[in-house]
Each structure stands twice: as structure tokens, then as C-alpha cells.
Design a protein that fits this description.
58% of the residues lie in helices and 9% in strands. By secondary structure, the chain is mainly α. Bound molecules: zinc ion. Zinc ion (ZN) binds next to loops.
Amino acid sequence: MELFERVQERLDGTTYTRPRELKFAYGGLLTCGHCGATITAEIKKKKYVYYRCAQRCEAVAYVREERVREQFIEAMRPLRMAESVREAVKRTLRESRARIEDDVRARVAAAQERIERLGRLIDKAYEDKLEGRIEDHFFMQNRMKWEKQRTEAVGRSSA
Ligand SMILES: [Zn+2]
């Protein structure tokens, strides 16, 4: 329904201005052929979008978005959509994909920024320790904390 509304707005020439959170191209559109549950999407390795049965039923399988797209296109073929509708659907799905990529890029950039900031913090604290401006105990305690945060940020920055 949401896809339909978005396509409808596109055809009407109205601009879609409502703020949107991260959405998956086929989110809420599919149901499991085995148990009938919703098909849910998730990001693997921070960039690949996979779909699976939300109930993780016995048909459990992870399907790459590219494969879902092929099947979706195949399923839509008999509908013989008007060319304008077909184009609008394609554009909408492409934009959804681009939003996910933007989101991943933003998160990687934020993590990298954090790594640099923590690095500067550690260097500065080390300097302060050498200059006797802060106590060894305080330095050690905080350095461990910052190193841990930096390691976590490094984990988030590798797309
Ligand atoms: Zn299922």
C-alpha cells in the first residue's frame, strides 16, 4: 500500500515531503510462501540487504535483495502495468535503495569521525600526563575507556 501511495504521488506530480526513516525497497510487500508470515529485511555486513521470514519458520532462508527484485519483477510481469506506472515503480524502488546506501555512508563517516576524535583525545591526554597535568591513574583509566570506544568505532566503520 505504501509503495502504491508513493507511486501514486509520483504520477500525480506531487512531491513526497514527509520525513522517512530507513526503508527497505520491498519492506512490508512480501509474505512467506511457507507460513504466511511477513518477510522482513536486514542489512548484512553493513551493505547487503537480505530478506527472510519474520517467523524464521522451517522455510528459513536468506534471500539477497537482487534476487528478490528479480522475483518481484517476474511476479509483476503479468499485471501488464502501464509504462508510466512501471517507470514510477522502478524509480521508487531505486530511490529506496539509494537511501539505504546514503544511510550506510553516513554511519561509516560518523564512525570514522569518532575514531579520529578519540585518537586526538588519547594523544592529548598522554601529553597532559607527560606534562604532569593529569595523574597516571586518571590517564590509564580514561585511555582504556577511549581505546575500547575507538575499537568499537573501528568495527562500525568497516563497510
Ligand atoms: Zn515462514
